[in-house]
Amino acid sequence: EVHLVESGGDLVKPGGSLRLSCAASGFAFSNAWMNWVRQAPGKGLEWIGHIRSQTDGGTADHAAPLKGRFAISRDDSKNMLYLQMNSLKTDDTAVYYCIPPGGSYWGQGTLVTVSS
Amino acid sequence: QAVVTQEPSLTVSPGGTVTLTCGSSTGAVTSGHYAYWIQQEPGQAPRTLIYDTNNKHSWTPARFSGSLLGGKAVLTLSGAQREDEAEYYCLLSYVGSRVFGGGTKLTVL
User: Fold this and answer.
1) What is the CA radius of gyration of chain B?
2) Which residue in B48, B100, B101 is closest to A104 by CB distance?
């Protein structure tokens, strides 16, 4: 059974950094292209980016507005996905989800609050 | 960045049929956009109903179906039930990116 647990969300000041983690189980994580998606309070879903499997190059693409501030990485030995977020802004306040291929699982996400 | 468009809101009667559409600013939506349809009930986490245009998950009710029609991705709900009242998002894939639509608030009334 596919299972994903996001963690690392916190209250952080504008300009700060945060690294989110996603622990995956129940599927062939190393073969999977993984996504990060977020949802600001009362707003719609926003795609943050994805990272390819190592066999497909292991590179990441990020949404244009977030390039340079956000970076996705993975550790297949630990079945872990990461999202490094820098220069955080109040607009980055959201619930962050990691999503496997096919969107086959949505967890509860992890809440990031950017506020002074 | 491409813009994905959805109807902001739709209303369907219980037992009725409704079609939600998903268009792309870059042109016709094709199978190469691997359209997803994601449902979010009030206060709940999202869940994917349809992926890769027309594939269902085990939890997807049979009354939902995905297709392409008129250059758009389409989610058809046949035999609407009150529990289908929710926000529905489509997600399209492009080279190097994916983009969500703004969502359709579906009311069953």
Assistant:
1) 13
2) B48
